[in-house]
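Tokens for chain A. Residues wanted.
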């Protein structure tokens, strides 16, 4: 039986950069990347940056296949889904914001919908089946954690 989760996901598209493989002792290597997600007006888009850890074999395989393109500084545009968003606070150590607080957004890269390199389509995920879509939209039978039961309302 698979474990059930409450999902909070970010669905978007942006530029995928800095693909890297991080060795770990006695464990599989960790695959990471940076995504510069596009948001706002098409005429004047802004970016939100996410430091991502690849979650799942399929995402790892895709990142490993395009790592050389990332190292060659080619423009990699992708549709993505992120989960497990968390913020890591820090203080700028140099530059015009020296001494000011900032936050790095970290997330798990859980799905890659498509990839374009230099404007050329190189990957497109297969659409989900109807049962997979239904499973995505079904809340658990008791969505209230036990620690809150009887305390609401």
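Reply:
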């Amino acid at each position: 039986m698979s474990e059930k989760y409450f999902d909070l996901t970010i669905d978007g598209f942006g530029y995928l950069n800095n693909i890297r493989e991080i060795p770990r002792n006695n464990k599989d290597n960790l695959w990471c990347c940076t995504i510069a997600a596009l948001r706002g007006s098409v005429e004047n888009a802004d970016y939100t940056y996410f430091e991502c850890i690849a979650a799942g074999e399929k995402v790892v395989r895709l990142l490993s296949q395009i790592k050389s393109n990332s190292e060659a500084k080619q423009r990699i545009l992708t549709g993505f889904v992120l989960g497990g968003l968390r913020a890591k606070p820090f203080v700028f150590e140099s530059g015009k914001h020296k001494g000011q607080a900032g936050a790095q957004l970290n997330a798990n890269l859980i799905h890659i919908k498509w990839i374009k390199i230099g404007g050329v389509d190189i990957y497109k995920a297969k659409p989900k089946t109807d049962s997979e879509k239904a499973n995505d939209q079904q809340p658990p039978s008791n969505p209230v954690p036990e620690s809150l039961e009887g305390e609401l309302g």
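The chain has one domain: 9-122. Residues 76 and 117 are 5 Å apart (CA to CA).
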